[in-house]
Amino acid sequence: MTAPHQHTGAHDHVDPYDHLSPADYWEQRYSSSERVWSGKVNTTMSAVVGEFTPGSAIDLGCGEGGDVLWLAEQGWRAQGLDISATAVGRAREEAATRGLENATFTATDLSTWHPEPESVDLVTASFFQSNVALDRVAILRAAASAVRSGGHLVVVSHAQGPDGSTHRGTAVASAREEAASLDLPAEQWTIEVAEERSRPTSGHDGQHSELLDAVLVMRRR
Asked: CA angle, corner 187, sides to 134 and 142, nearest 5?
């Protein structure tokens, strides 16, 4: 399960699958198309994580694996988690094609996922937002428990929709609002970045626009 790493249009649309369960919704989204996302790393996430020393990482809602593959290429031992078996299968195929043995993928329902505490150096979530039921805050809090001392939680979210669109899909929030909703213990976590950053994008018609990302970076003490 993932939201797009790059918008492909700036107009409202009707989602034909939004009546389905989360598992069926995302499986239908992936299985109905040869490829859903660009396959490229989220540029905002890579700008943040590119400053960290590689270690072990988990990516939530990895989709077809763009962020995980980039992490692996930078030397991380990266695991991607997604609810769609089809998406995970595509990610595994791409990792094999690139010879990235340090990129692994697991199909799992994150609403019932329990990570090993303090087991990784990094947890990332790029546009981990959904048009169907998703206990996002609970999942992010659970994922934060997997970060060991000195490690980071990096959440990049949509702070607003594309220019000219009134379609907001899931609720959007600022990075500060995101941090407040997670409410991680201040004695255990330090907020290193909580801001909005603009990101250029283009649609199918080639029209360029600016998107606004909410960027939250927290370090475990």
From this structure: 20
Which residue type is seen at 205? D
Token duo for residue 106? 């697991």
Residue 34, Ramachandran bin (φ over 0: left; ψ between -120 and 50: alpha; else beta) = alpha
Entry pTM:
0.84
Greatest mean pLDDT among 2-11, 151-160, 179-188: 179-188
- Using 50, 70 and 90 to split pLDDT, how confident is the model at 5? very low
d(CA 216, CA 4): 18
Q: How do residues 196-207 score in pLDDT, each as one tens digit?
A: 999 877 655 666
Give the pLDDT confidence of 8-35 residue by residue, as tens digits: 333 345 566 667 787 888 788 787 766 6
- Note whether 162 and 127 are within 8 A (CB): no
Please list, in sequence order, all residues whose beta carbon lies within 8 angstroms of the beta carbon of residue 89, skipping any fewer than 6 positions away.
Answer: none
Q: Which residues contact 210 (CB under 8 A, 6 or more apart)?
A: 163, 198, 199, 200, 201
- 3-class secondary structure, 66: helix
Which element (helix H / strand E) includes 45? helix 43-49
Cβ neighbours of residue 184 under 8 Å, at least 6 residues apart? 141, 144, 153, 218
Distances (CA, A) of 147 to 75, 108, 120: 18, 19, 5
- For residue 97, the SS3 value is helix
